[in-house]
Amino acid sequence: MISVAATLPAIKALPRPDPWRSGVVLAALLLALPVLVVFSFVFAPAGEVWLHLKQTVLQEYVTNSLVLLLGVGVGVLAIGIPAAWMVSLCEFPGRRLFEWGLLLPMAMPAYIIAYTYTGMLDFAGPVQTQLRDWFGWGYGDYWFPDIRSLPGAVLMLSLVLYPYVYLLSRAAFLEQSICVLEVSRTLGTGPWAGFARVALPLARPAIITGLSLALMETLADYGTVQYFGLATFTTGIFRTWFGLGDPAAAAQLAAVLMSFVFVLILLERWSRRRARFHHTSTRYSHLPRYQLRGWRRIGAIVGCSIPVAFGFLLPALQLGVWAVDTVDAWLKADFFHLVANSLMLAAITAVLAVALALLMAYGRRLRSSRPVDLAVRVASMGYAVPGTVIAVGVILPFAWLDNTLDAFMRAQFDISTGLILSGTLAALVFAYCVRFLAVSLNTVEAGLGKIKPSMDDAARCLGLPPRRVLREVHMPIMRGSLLTALLLVFVDVLKELPATLILRPFNFNTLAVRTFELASDERLADSASAALAIVLAGIVPVILLSRTIGRSRPGHDQTVC
Amino acid sequence: MTKLLDVENIDVGYGNHTVVFDAALHLKKGAIGVLLGPSGCGKTTLLRAIAGFEPVQRGRILLAGDEVSRAGWTLPPEKRQVGMVFQDFALFPHLTVADNIAFGIRRWPADKRAARVQDLLQLVGLPQYGKNYPHALSGGQQQRVALARALAPKPRLLLLDEPFSSMDVELRESLAREVRTILKHEGITGLMVTHDQFEAFAIADRIAVMHGGRILQWDSAYNLYHQPADRQVADFIGQGVLLAGMVVGDTMVETPLGPIAGKVPEGCRKGCPVDVLIRPDDLMLDPASALQAEVIDKAFRGAVFLYTLRLPSGATVLCQAPSHHDHAIGERVGLRPDFDHLAVFPRRA
Questions:
Q1: Class of domain A80-551
Q2: Do B77 and A14 touch (CB under 8 A)?
Q3: What is the ipTM of this complex?
């Protein structure tokens, strides 16, 4: 801390240590701890288990993960870009409905869609039963593709992750200056050529950003690949930890996975930076859309319907049917207990994550300097880190701390303190904060950025110290952003699976964990009610998102403050 | 009379980059000062240093005799009892007009607070608007609320950062006079930043002309106009031209308008080349005068014409004449100098 303070420019030096600057840097260091711990295992000496892994399964992990990345990459681009282009630049019946409808698959966690399709497509499922009825087939008379395969996983992940590409490329299409598009039209470019030669190249940075986000999620996925029995890094980390009982080797696997993620982070940052230079003109007006007629119109409607139907409507319908079938069972069972657990965890994390985001964002506003900016950036890196990796990075230092403290207390006072942090809800909430701080931070920073600096100055001249300016001026003004941030984190926690699986206290279950457990036991119908609850909660941020993007177009902006 | 604000040779800047150099000025209690200069001259930075938002790199600032800033230490703005009115008003959008005004006097007893808010609303001419929200007010009304809010805690010093810049040009001068009346009524010392000299003339007892981060002159409006300290001040304040001349005596300068008596710069002896500032109101049209000039341009200003005239020497001067003296371009007119005092600068090498 002292060394950080000493490197700062002397002009802002205050007589006593600055609580804002040290607060931000300390909190950032704490939140960066799991990732740093995992990274430190890059240099750890290779143990026996690691050598064993390297000889046997590592090759498979890498291959499967790469094929998954490639497949999902192609899939999300193939669905996301055309859909974004059609709803932002063409006019056809139902366009406004599709604008937000295409976001709905975001509400569907990958592991839930995976086992829902498994249930729908397996031998006893409605699809094969119907086919047998129609064609009079019997068992073994026909070939049916197995969804529980690598191509199946690619399909499942593409169906729920394409909204990232859709969202960002749509925003890019909408932000493109009308001048550029009009000029291309006066030069005789039709819709297709305008798309390929003008809009697509201009939107490329945004598309790459969306793609890298989708691929980060792909790498982070545990539920789908585990359920489909595919060996990837995330399942490998689980197996190494719980099966082989070697945390160090698990952390080493996590470190390799992190290097994949790191490439994606660099890709994302690079494309975001380039995006800034792609606005050639600042004149915006209402976009005149291409009026689609005849087969093109039908093509657009069908094209937009497919991802919504397969990514959300069909699986949600199936979950609904199952849930209704098993309504009596789950009303009696521990459903409400699970809901209470999930809501409590989500609420605690949401409040903490927003409080941390406020500290970081406001600290940066007060004391923008290289160390503070760097700290904030490091702290918000967690969104890219798979939940499995964070869990490993949390449990190792916490266990070390507990053991050290226990040994010390036993030696000094002959008292065993046992496990204070690891295996408790505190560890879980901490992991959630690491993973989801970026979600709250982005929203809070955006809200704070809209408040003019003169507001701060005015309040200070009227006698308020900085922390009360935050409470009495900023927080009331940015109430909307704070609520949005709370809600986004809340829902993300509800959906989170791998970190919860690893870090939850013994006998403590949440909706997501129970859903996954029941599905893994092939009790698909029984898990439907919990799954449906998660999906319904997931719709809330989708609605928020679609409202934000509707307002985001410059020129259609609401005045702020 | 005591000095309320004393700025002692301060440097202000960001990081290694210094924006204000060696600024010194002081205000007596109840006086109104103005920092005047083109954009980027450092006037807002100087104001923010006085408010406590920017630390000083050198020198110190005293408020009513107490040190509030020195190199390495800054009393935070919330502890200075300094009010500030911002260019964009910075009214809190989530509070009503009355709550905005009451923001700085939260700790007062409720009845006193309500009375103060009502008094101030009355003072700025908005007695009915207490329950409105800022976004429902016009720009001028918001400006008055911002002023009332800053005045509410009875600050020792009120700082105004280009408060009229978002107003219509025609309104600015009258608003400035109105603010002056209010400040004088409340007995509050004020310091305003502006780039508009007419605004400055309308409000100020004393004006600091700033350029390139330095205070060039700290003086009354009258002296700035008639006795500018150097050619940058002469150039920035009012209109006029510099005519080449030569010192011919201890108090005499030879110019294309003939010899003129007046104070010559120190260090300028006989034969020293100088420039003489000629204001448009220093010259009168006089048909009887032997000095003839040709009209090369004219601008109608209502009550007066502003003529651009070419002298026999080829130099041009500006001359302001009552608008019934209507002369055509190209016409020759007689010219008579009418100087009260002389502004003479040594010629630049």
A1: mainly alpha
A2: no
A3: 0.83
